[in-house]
């Protein structure tokens, strides 16, 4: 049942990201879903269960991650979540997430994608050697984003698990200076 929930939640998030980011209702729903996923991941020790069940494994075998043999790289982030606090609508803020490759092989990040077009990650394109350091910078544009914002950056790399997530959040005060929840 939990696997079905994760699959449905991820499908909903992906589906909603194709809708314009300026739609405030969609943004609020995405933020609630991301918050719920983060809550569930925290309860399960930060691991997201595979959305594949034995009955669907044959049709979705590309989704199943096999653990590669041999030495693997590993992320060690100084932090995996950053709170920008209160910012004013229209501000563009950025944060750099520092990490170290604590694994036994060079770390290669193949992609970093954000949950919304208002959030843009940049990552090193070259392999990070064993013991080497790297940075992922995340920019958030708060234009047309009043209220509480929770954004997720999904990193795909040659690690186990292949997917790692970073989170940013902030409370965006409408440009007119009004504070409080957005209606």
CATH first level: Mainly Beta
CATH topology: Immunoglobulin-like
Fraction of residues in helix: 10-25%
Low-pLDDT ranges: 16-22, 48-64
Question: What is the tally of beta strands?
Answer: 8
The ordered string of helix (H) and strand (E) elements is HHEEEEEEEE
Q: CATH H-level name... which superfamily?
A: Immunoglobulins
How many helices? 2
Q: What is the second-level CATH architecture?
A: Sandwich
Structural class: alpha+beta
Q: How many angstroms does the end-to-end distance come to?
A: 33 Å
| Largest pleated sheet | 4 strands, antiparallel
Number of spatially distinct domains = 1
Apparent shape: elongated
Q: Over the alpha carbons, how many angstroms does the gyration radius reach?
A: 18 Å
Mean pLDDT: 78
- How much of the polypeptide forms β-strand, as a percent range? 25-35%
Question: How is this structure best described in words?
Answer:
The protein has 183 residues and is α+β, with helices and mostly antiparallel strands. The chain has one domain (2-52, 70-173): Immunoglobulins (Immunoglobulin-like). It is 20% helix and 34% strand. It contains two helices and eight strands. It has helices at residues 2-17, 24-43; strands at residues 75-77, 81-88, 92-101, 109-114, 119-122, 133-141, 147-157, 163-173. The strands form two sheets. It has a four-stranded antiparallel sheet with strand order 1-3-6-5, with no helix packed on it. Strands 2-8-7-4 form a four-stranded mixed sheet, covered by helices on one side. A hairpin with a 5-residue loop joins strand 7 (147-157) and strand 8 (163-173). Helix 1 (2-17) packs antiparallel against helix 2. The longest helix is centred in the N-terminal third of the chain and has 20 residues, at 24-43. It is elongated, with a radius of gyration of 18 Å. The protein starts with a helix and ends in a 10-residue tail after the last strand. Residues 16-22 and 48-64 have low confidence and may be disordered.
């Amino acid at each position: 049942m939990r696997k079905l929930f994760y699959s449905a939640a991820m499908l909903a998030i992906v589906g909603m990201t194709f809708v314009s980011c300026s739609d405030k209702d969609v943004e609020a729903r995405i933020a609630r879903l991301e918050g719920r996923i983060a809550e569930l991941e925290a309860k399960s020790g930060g691991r997201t269960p595979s959305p594949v069940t034995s009955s669907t494994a044959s049709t979705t075998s590309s989704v199943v991650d096999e653990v590669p043999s041999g030495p693997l790289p590993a992320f060690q982030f100084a932090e995996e979540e950053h709170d920008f606090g209160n910012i004013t609508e229209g501000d563009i803020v950025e944060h750099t997430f520092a990490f170290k490759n604590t694994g036994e092989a060079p770390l290669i990040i193949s992609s970093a994608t954000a949950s919304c077009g208002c959030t843009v990650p940049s990552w090193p394109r070259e392999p990070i050697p064993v013991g080497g350091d790297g940075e992922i910078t995340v920019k958030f544009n708060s234009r047309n984003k009043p209220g509480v914002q929770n954004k997720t950056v999904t990193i795909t790399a040659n690690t186990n698990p292949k997917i790692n997530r970073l989170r940013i959040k902030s409370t965006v005060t409408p440009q007119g200076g009004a504070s409080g929840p957005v209606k």
